[in-house]
Amino acid sequence: MKEMFREYKDSDYTQCEELVNEAWRFDYIFSPKALSDIAKLIYTKGSVLGSNYKMVVEVNGKVIGFIFGLNEHSNKPGNNILFGLGLLWKLIWIKCKKPNRNDLLNALKVHENNRAEIVYRGRSEIILFIVGKEFQGKGVGKKLWSGFKNMSIGSEVKSIIVETNKLGASSFYEQIGFRHLADFDSPLHEFATKGGQACIYEYQFNN
pLDDT exceeding 90 applies to what percent of the chain? Predict the structure, then answer.
């Protein structure tokens, strides 16, 4: 398997969104498809816009993983106000089944409020990090992480946080040196991982 690691391009977006859907099963969780599409947009496009470090890995021309991160001491990402307004406009016009648009909006609000009690937005963070299921356990994720970690070394970054789920990737983060910081309640995580626990992990630099 020959991997190629490179910077993210706009043309990679569709493949990245497909990986997000594979990981969180939005097409299964949300109905109708229009609501599922918005959920995927929030997770994927929102993460692209909120990151200043974006790398993908491809095999045979296909994107099989990516990492989007924020280095608080690097160039700040652009303003997401127009993106947020566009999402709200789309939500207004959707007729939904359960979970409906109000459920999604409330889940987003509760998630952000509970998370903010632990960590603030704007810290150096792994914002979105996915490796396709077929390629997990082969060192791809560790290589993607090393790129972001090495970019942060030498800057004033003292730590990197990541939001994950205890039934999800928490064991992977522990393997690469992250330590559990805190748990928080999240209806968003409950949508995707029944019985799971949203949590924040932290990687500390010795500088």
Answer: 59
Torsion of CA 160, 119, 44, 51, to 10 degrees: -50
Q: Can you give the pLDDT at residue 79? A: 61
Work out the average pLDDT over 136-162: 94
Phi first, then psi: what are they for 129, rounded to 5°?
Answer: -145, 110
Q: Helix 33-49 vs helix 101-116: angle between axes, to the nearest 10 degrees?
A: 30
CATH of domain 3-204: 3.40.630.30
3-class state of residue 180 by DSSP: strand
Angle 140-142-146 (CA atoms, 0-180°, nearest 5)? 120
d(CA 26, CA 17): 10
Q: How far is CA 203 from CA 72, 130, 162, 180, in A?
A: 14, 18, 9, 9
DSSP state of 109: H
Q: How many helices (H) and strands (E) does the chain have?
A: 8, 7
Whether omega for the bond prior to residue 32 falls within 30 degrees of 0, making it cis, is: yes
C-beta of residue 51 within 8 angstroms of C-beta of residue 69: yes
* Lowest mean per-residue pLDDT among 9-18, 54-63, 116-125, 185-194: 185-194
- For 17-29, write each residue's pLDDT tens digit: 999 999 988 888 8
- How many angstroms separate the CA atoms of 187 and 109, rounded? 9
